[in-house]
Amino acid sequence: MADRDLEARHLETLDRDLSRFSALEVATAYIGRPLVGPGISFIFILLAALAATLFLDKSSNGPVVAIAAAFGAYMALNIGANDVANNMGPAVGANALTMGGAIVIAAIFESAGALIAGGDVVTTISKGIIAPESIGAPDIFLWAMMAALLSSALWVNLATWIGAPVSTTHSVVGGVMGAGIAAAGFASVDWSMMGSIAASWVVSPALGGLVAAGFLWFIKARIIYQPDKIRAARRWVPVLVGIMAGTFAAYLALKGLKHLFDITLGMSLMLGAALGVAVWLVMIPVIRRQSRGLENRNKSLKVLFGIPLVVSAALLSFAHGANDVANAVGPLAAIVQAAQGGDVADQIDIPIWVMLIGAFGISFGLFLFGPKLIRMVGSQITKLNPMRAYCVALSAAITVIVASWLGLPVSSTHIAVGAIFGVGFFREWDTARRLRKAQIEDPDRPRIAPEERSRRKLVRRSHVLTIAAAWIVTVPAAATLSAAIFLGLRLITD
């Protein structure tokens, strides 16, 4: 009997010890989980620096290029964490894609866009903001590009941390401008281009919001508010999908495939029109088949917009990878050319190993840190469903084409977020309009108090103010940081 009691006490002691170990493991996992992303990112940055030492020709500036490669990898990670949310956020917010599915699709198409169609010369990033010849010695230009790369990465990292989707293009532009001013004075900056970029702070979100609101109004008027919604959808959804297909064909030709082929704006529009008509004809029987048995309510319409929304998110990611990879590797490519003794005033081409750093960095950044901004863009600014998200995606493509036709420099980030604002504010206006109409038709209807109307706002004002403030300060903040880093680097090296 005593032996049994002793064995029972031993088992109780063992259970308590195991419980302590289990609690310790849970606590360790809880504490260590936030460190996984930074740890993997640090390893990727080290591998990027190692790749630079392996692929670069033997040069006295080899260590400098390795450091620049690390900065480029850091910038690519931040682009993936911040910028890609604009493409995937609407689809995730509308529940057309899960978070995991969005990350996989974005990683594949961002990398494909960067590697297939992203090998353009980096004119704007490396030479369009400042004149390299005005800086003088190649080593000064090298340190200026280094400062621009690090400052823009730090700013985008800070913006991601506070939950503000900012333009990585404007961050790099600000970084290059600040380093150029610190190196060669204000005369080295192309102020006309800077004025155009400042104008895009207003033009980009305004155009995106107006186009998205216009398409949402059309969908509501022609489909949602019709007595027979399914019949209206059979007529208009193929047209809308055809418009989307044609627009994205022109968008990809203009913003992505132009790196592979010589395509003018007119040629891209003709290509888009032809493909749009073809897709419209194909989608007529498809939508008719999909709509069989659907109930005559708004929820049924979401089914018809799901697949086009997923395809649009993938195409936006491809075009984004083709264009914005230059934000990460443009200054790095300029540094590589300067380090190898090249003339910084010549055309700057991107080596394949530099492109790989940009492509994989964007994918890693999206996978490790992207969900935070994807959730914010997709669901925290305003509530999205597939129809509203469709309007956002289509607006992004149309606005870029219109801006290219008008010769206006625009930001894809500002367009996408502006389109979400446009959808949300249109919903507020439309809701208020319908309430006023109902009040006129039924004067005895109870009125909604002003406090209640304020509480029912469909766009979160706090996000509007935070994002707008981040957009305004991006260029000056990145420029100030870049100038400080450049002067610090010069002080250390001299």
UniProtKB/TrEMBL annotation:
The chain crosses the membrane at residues 35-56, 62-80, 92-117, 140-164, 171-189, 201-224, 236-254, 260-282, 303-322, 350-369, 389-406, 412-429, 464-489. Pfam families: PHO4. It is found in: Membrane. It is a multi-pass membrane protein. InterPro entries: Phos_transporter. Its main location: membrane. Signal peptide: none annotated. Keywords: Membrane, Phosphate transport, Transmembrane, Transmembrane helix, Transport. Belongs to the inorganic phosphate transporter (PiT) (TC 2.A.20) family. This is Phosphate transporter. It comes from Paracoccus stylophorae. The lineage of its organism: Bacteria, Pseudomonadati, Pseudomonadota, Alphaproteobacteria, Rhodobacterales.
